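One thing: mind reviewing this one?
=====
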Amino acid sequence: AKAEHYRVAPNAPEIPAMQELRRSIEEIAANRTTKAMTEEGRIQYRAIVGSAAALKDGLDRLAEAGSRLDAAKLRVIKAGDSLTHLLEKMVADINQSGNTEAKLQASRVENAILVSRLSAARSMIDAAPVYQEESRAKIAQARAALQHVEAQGDPAMSRQVRELADAFVAYAAELGGYHEAVIASKATFETGI
């Protein structure tokens, strides 16, 4: 049951419990092999021991994949925090400038980035391909909004837009890395468990 739950909602901290359960099954079956009254019973218990032992390597690989998945998730969160900080600073600075056109451009960029971050969050909650594809589309739209503002060449925004664009590229790359880690973790589960 734990393995099936992991398939739906990968969570690396659950793996040690699965490893312990596997070890316990192997130990109990080995103990019962010696106590079996018939050869047929010993054969069945040996088969259980063999099956449980075979899961060890798969669970170890799954633990490694889970660790990579957790690390990728943390990198996305950190990149998102950096992006949020830069976005808030840009919007605050532009709002203080009194430049109406710059405020409008900053609002468009802010909206595009926020929509892409919401879509990215959905793709992290549910790694279904449809949400990953939607996330990539929203990221492309946000990049287009940033490129449009950069092309305008507004001196009030140029440095901050460049920093924001760089941070957004890093965020998108980390999100892509997270999606790859999810795919690898699921593949490890499917082939190793």
Q: What stands out?
A: Residues 39-97 form the longest helix (59 residues). The CA atoms of residues 72 and 178 lie 5 Å apart. DSSP finds six helices and no strands in the chain. The chain has a mean pLDDT of 88.
